[in-house]
Amino acid sequence: MSALLEVRAIEKHYFKNIGLFKKERINALNPISFTLNEGETLAVIGDTGSGKSTLGKVLAGAEEPSGGKIFLEGQALDESYEKQRNSQVRFIFQDPKRSLNPSVKVGNILAAPLRFNTEFSVKERIEKIRETLLKVGLLPEHTEYYPHMLSTGQLQRVALARAIILDPKILVLDEAVASLDPSVRAQIVNLLLDLQDAQKLSYILITHHLGIVKHISDTLMVLHQGELVEYGNTSDVFANPVHKQTQKMLISQDF
Amino acid sequence: MILLDIRNLTVELLQNGDNIRAVDRINLSIKEGEVHGLVGESGSGKSLVAKSIVGILDGRWDITADRLHWQGEDLMRVSGKKRRQILRRDIAMIYQDPSRCLDPTATIVEQILESIPADQLSGTYAERKKQRHERAIALLHKVGIKDHESILDNYPHMLSEGYCQKVMIAMAIAKKPKLLIADEPTTALESTTQAQILRVLKGLNQLKNTSILLISNDLGNLAEWTHTVSVMYCGQMVESGSTEQIFNRPYHPYTQALINAVPDFHHNLPHRSRLFALDGSIPTLRHLPIGCRLGPRCPNAQRECVKVPKVYKDHNHSYSCHHPIDYSKEYE
Amino acid sequence: MIDYNDYQDDKNHSPSRQLWLLFNESHPARIGLWLCISLLLLSILAPLISPYSPYEFDGSALLMPPAWADEGNVDYMLGTDDLGRDILSRLMNGASLTFGLSIVSILIALFFGLILGSLAGLSKGVKSSMFNHVLDLALTMPSLLTAIIIVAVLGPGISNMIWAIMLSSLPQFVHAIRNAVHDELQKEYVIAYRLDGANMTQVLTHAILPNIFEQIIVVATMAISNAILDIAALGFLRLGAQAPSPEWGAMVAESLDQLYSAPWTIALPGVLIFLSVLSINLVGDGLANALKRRLER
């Protein structure tokens, strides 16, 4: 069976202008390869500047990779396949307050991806939105709310609804869990696990909260300054970390 | 010796008509040399408590307390000038967002020099200037910045958040305070830096006997660093006691929920099992339930819970709940 | 962390309704809005409700003072000018020229500004910076001066004046909209829209414009008050509306010789120019304040 997502030597660098004509190359992400199977969770951990956010953005299509290829179910993702990726790989931001349009009602926020990616009629759209809201533990009435009327936990549920409304295969969660209040965080973690069981979703979990990593991820990837320093089964890595950076992170949160 | 003793502190948001009780009659006491953890989720009013201790809430808030004693002196009843003197001498505060709390247009060294009180120095102008500089470097060493040369002339935006937080701590301890109030000092930081900051704070506590009020929204960080812990929910003090008591035998369902919600505490938790979570969401302060504010979300709630529970005491462990978790059955 | 949002009263209103409530809290802004609305009504209805035609002569009533003066006559409420024309009718009809035309020309300029500004905001790299520098250059010239130059080239007259006002206020719109679009593009919800699969037009219409709409209105109100002053100034300099036309600036210029003998002929159009600029500024200020306060919540 081929893997759901296969990433081959993907990399990202920027050019920063120094002076008028000189440019400096900054490697945000050195070539990285990995695979992800259906229904699995891959956790990406690392300090600031490790390139973990860049990796997430590149995977979700928010930024173009400088090199390398991404295959989704054996199909290479390139420009002609952009639409497909938008509905198959979805991105959830850290702060739902900033990632939801403040001047638009929840219902319209959820309708947007349907309008852009599907041929649904208005009636089908409404039905799909209702269904998705119930799935993430909100009520159909929430379509009439504006984002500022909801609590952070509810907003993160809306963000989750927006991500899964297109029935994607992969969700990229950029610190989307760890920044929440503990009791809300537990709710969202449970919701993620339920969704994974029900829809065979795969997650790419970018976070620094090792407790959650240990709890829900199957494989673990440690990045340090754009370099992949450790990659393996989560329980193996937690049991005997090889790289110094991994050891440092584990000790800092006493595992 | 008890440094800070608070009884029935109430903070209300003034509104024409009905006032909103953002902090509802909480008690708190901090002993000398103690690290006290104050835990609560957003909207629990934990920052309001810190702000009312140092008196920096604006006119929209009304603060009342039966007792707000600092080393036997009632801060609510002394004159404003006297209160500021006490605060200046004894209490320092650090905040959540260090890079935004430092002056962006001044270098690090300027800001640290400024924070050193003049009464610690002596001699002529030139001598004092030299002492000031030496003190600044010593302060940076104390908070774990060894390569002080490399950062002294930097501006805050050139440093990482972790460094900024250390500089904040350095500035806060310049006057050798008896109490350091740390308002979520590690929330904005990466995990390895978080550990560093907590180590610095712990070192301060052990070496200088500084008391610390450590405010956090996550019980997880506190287990190892604190002597005593208080838990707040929606402006009510839910439970308070020594760290072992809170973590090993919580009486209040909310405390238990907080402990169970964090996977770190259960090393034997099965992989991918569901975490324990309270239903519902934290109410906004405009829609607070009456009585015990946890009521609508509480798994043990019964009819009495619409009345505010009084504070029960078991040794030093106090909790306010009509139906605390019953441990007697476990031993039968 | 304390979320002050939680303590706010009227949280359960849509953003535009919040804005309206905040706007309404300020009395000056409300008075300004009422003044604005009445001026707007006047400029639309003036030909229907004015008692005389603005060009009608009455040889028997030259330089008649307003009705409350001893020599006044109730037939001519605000008196007459040196040709015996009713000042009240002239002022009413002038509203549609000075006030109405300024709004119309700003609306047209706004429309083109939106198109150009959005294009500029969405473009990147060399194109964007070139555009920016050209705009900066255009902004260095005072709008009145630009307008005068344009009129000087095209020749005086009302239609040329409108062109002049439009062209001279265009750069600031393009600039403001370009910056707003640019800021908005960095926001996470806009990136989220792009990841939803929206193309640039959809991002612009669904995510960006609804969020910068209110800012644009604030810029536009400020531009309207400028346009009123420019139209009046051009009329006064006899570059805009020409002699018999009841444009307020032109009326002031026409009656300048009678400053001592018939001061009302100058004072009344002057007061109206003052009131219209004041009302627009009050509204713009109120809106900007309300926007700022909503952002603080």
Summarize the structure.
The complex is a heterotrimer of chains A (255), B (332) and C (297). By secondary structure, chain A is α/β, with parallel strands linked by helices.
Word description of this protein:
The complex is a heterotrimer of chains A (255), B (332) and C (297). Chain A contains ten helices and ten strands. Chain A starts with a strand and ends with a helix. In chain A, the strands form two sheets. In chain A, strands 6-7-8-3-9-10 form a six-stranded mixed sheet, sandwiched between helices. Chain A is α/β, with parallel strands linked by helices. With 332 residues, chain B is of the alpha/beta class. Chain B is built from eleven helices and 13 strands. In chain B, the strands form two sheets. Chain B has an eight-stranded mixed sheet with strand order 7-8-9-3-10-11-13-12, sandwiched between helices. In chain B, strands 1, 2, 4, 5 and 6 form a five-stranded antiparallel sheet that branches. In chain B, helix 4 packs parallel to helix 7 and helix 5 packs across helix 7 (161-172). With 297 residues, chain C is mostly helical. In chain C, 43% of the residues are buried. Residues 1-10 of chain C have low confidence and may be disordered. Chain A binds chain B through residues 47-48, 151-154, 181-187, 189-190, 193-194, 208-212, 214-216, 235, 248-249, 251-255, and chain B through 41-42, 160-161, 190-196, 217-220, 224, 257-258, 260-264, 269, 271-272, 274-278, 281-282, 284.
